[in-house]
Amino acid sequence: EANDAGFAKELASLGHLYVNDAFGAAHRAHASTEGIAHHVGDAVAGYLMSKELKYLQEALADPSRPFVAILGGAKVLDKIEVIENLLDKVDSLLIGGGMAYTFLKAQGKEIGQSLFDAETMETAGGLIEKAKAKGVDLQLPTDCVVVQKLETGAESRVVTSDAIPADWEGVDIGPATAAEFSRRVAEAGTVIWNGPLGVFEIDDFAMGTDAVAEALERATWESGAVSIIGGGDTAAAVDRAGAAKRMTHMSTGGGASLECLGGRILPGVEALDDKE
Known about the structure:
By secondary structure, the protein is α/β, with parallel strands linked by helices. The protein has 11 helices and 11 strands. The strands form 3 sheets. A 6-stranded parallel beta sheet has the order 5-4-3-9-10-11, sandwiched between helices. A 3-stranded antiparallel beta sheet has the order 7-6-8. It has a two-stranded parallel sheet with strand order 1-2. Helix 9 (233-240) links the parallel strand 10 and strand 11. Helix 4 (80-86) crosses helix 10 (254-261), helix 5 (100-106) crosses helix 6 (121-134) and helix 7 (175-186) runs parallel beside helix 8. The two termini are 25 Å apart. The mean pLDDT is 95.
């Protein structure tokens, strides 16, 4: 992890050719992903690495439209760079998951005990305004599933996103939001998805993520949409919904795909001879 030059040379001494096929680690400048490439005769990308970069770069550079991005997960901070980059490229941006509540709070809505990041609330409000200025259709949940206890079998309610009780927390997008997100996905030419839309690990709170995954599966299979699923939790959620096999591309790297979408150069790719 320290990318020690001496250790990188030791690794390089074991062979003449280095092939990096670990896209999921390409965003990390480690001795085995970046350092070694400087001490071998040839350092090139493997087929999986090439495929990952092809889909992500083509989606950003020349997408079939409408181009829709779905972003979820817990923290706004993890997605700020991605949102900034995508606002210049997408037609619609659908935001769910725990991060959505900071955006709702930025609009002055009561979010109860839902996940909230005070440090990024101002940024979230600014991103909403930027989306308006750029003509991007930014969609936040209009309803959500709320609970008092985050556990299997807990009592839940569906409420509008401006009426979350003070001692309840949002754990999933509601049915109206799921239907609206699914409608936009059904009309899309390209969809990039990074981050689940609820606490999908608990079946009771996976309905929103499942509904959108099924809509994207249909759009891919029946309408020829290009569907690109960020790795990590997103891939796990789509697989859990039984929709993984029909997606155009299931990325193997959550963090790496996120940094790609944010416009960052991946050190494990930059170090390769065939990086172009």
